[in-house]
Design a protein that fits this description.
Blueprint: H1 3-9, E1 24-25, H2 30-39, E2 44-49, E3 52-58, H3 59-70, H4 83-93, H5 97-100, E4 104-105, E5 110-112, H6 117-126, E6 131-136, E7 139-145, H7 146-154, H8 161-164, E8 182-183, H9 188-197, H10 201-207, E9 219-223, E10 229-234, H11 245-249, H12 255-262, E11 276-277, H13 283-293, E12 297-301, E13 307-312, H14 313-321
Parallel strand pairs: 1-2, 5-6, 8-9, 11-12
Antiparallel strand pairs: 2-3, 3-4, 6-7, 9-10, 12-13
Helix pairs in contact: 1-6, 3-4, 3-9, 6-14, 7-13, 13-14
Length: about 325
């Protein structure tokens, strides 16, 4: 069976409904929204108002707000009382998601629970959509992410063995891209700005972290002085600055120092080392890596260990829904 056939036969109703569908309100404060996402260890959630669901909030889209509140207060070595941290957090509590004018996407489509997974994957893989809302009789009943779909596919690769055996080269995912990398000596706050602004590595070295760009990225690879891949910094890592004063102060330290005080050992595996693969890897192998590690990207490394490009959840899903994957 080809992957498209498997996806066509699998209904969205087959996904287990969550015991609790985590949502946020449009008039919630930015602090409350971030705390809700952190509490449930999720990066996004549906947004509702008095008329129903109005969009989806994404932590990566809130990064700009978080940085604006924190960059003028973080890193003060003389702040022994934690006052700067308190002021920065309070400022997030004084602005609502609605007033922020960003952080959530109003362009949403609710899929019927009887729809097939192929139609959903076309949105998840090719339309810059990282999750879908699922409804039944006008009621929101599920929220399916790219990660959930990848875990499903990783557990069923034998049902589309031909597609799973395709290599990254077969899917044109093995070529070098303009991958944004962060040297290990970079300050953490500048690395997060780089993710927000998404400038090329050449431009970052030329103009620093002040460039304004229309679209950010959710993670960047950390490299050694020689350019070797040593770790990964994700937008989810910025959540700790709300509750961890050490992480807050470490925003003006290097990314490696920030990570050292930011994440417990059991969660640090996503960052050190970053998950890598060879250009000859198959889609099935990539699915397994993504599913087991519960990460959103793997990095193709050259024979010397230098990152060439990232392969994301979107890349894999897009490759599997194209006719060529049959």
């Amino acid at each position: 069976m080809a992957c498209r056939d498997f996806l066509s036969s699998y209904k969205l109703s087959h996904f287990e409904r969550p015991a609790e569908l985590v949502t946020v309100n449009l008039d919630d404060s930015l602090l409350s929204v971030i705390q809700t996402l952190s509490k449930h260890n999720i990066l996004c959630a549906p947004v509702k108002n008095e008329n129903g669901f109005t969009g989806v909030v994404d932590l990566s889209q809130l990064l700009n707000c978080i940085l604006d509140k924190f960059e003028h207060h973080a890193g003060r070595e003389d702040d022994l009382t934690g006052l700067a941290h308190l002021v920065a957090v309070k400022s997030l509590d004084e602005q609502s998601l609605l007033d922020s004018k960003l952080g959530y996407n109003e362009a949403i489509e609710i899929f019927d629970e009887g729809s097939d997974l192929l139609s959903a994957c076309k949105a998840l893989g090719t339309m810059n959509t990282h999750r879908i809302l699922v409804g039944e009789d006008g009621t929101l009943v599920n929220f399916i992410t790219q990660s959930a779909v990848v875990r499903l596919l990783a557990n069923n690769t034998e049902k589309f063995a031909k597609s799973a055996a395709l290599t990254l080269a077969d899917c044109h995912l093995n070529t070098t891209s303009d991958l944004i990398t962060v040297p290990r000596s970079t300050k953490a706050i500048d690395a997060f700005k780089l993710m927000r602004d998404r400038v090329s590595q050449h431009d970052f070295s030329r103009i620093g972290a002040n460039s304004k760009h229309c679209k950010g990225v959710s993670a960047v690879p950390i490299v050694s002085e020689e350019g070797f891949l040593i770790g990964n910094l994700s937008v989810r890592d910025v959540r700790s600055v709300l509750t961890n004063k050490r992480a807050f102060k470490a925003l003006h330290k290097t990314v490696t120092e920030f990570i050292a005080c930011n994440a417990p050992d059991k969660e640090r595996s996503e960052m050190f080392p970053a998950i890598t693969c060879k250009a000859t890897a198959t889609l099935g192998e990539i699915l397994t890596k993504l599913a087991i590690s519960r990460i959103h990207r793997v990095y193709i490394a050259d024979p010397q260990g230098k990152p060439m490009r990232a392969v994301t959840l979107s890349d894999v899903l897009a490759a599997l829904v194209t006719p060529n994957a049959d």
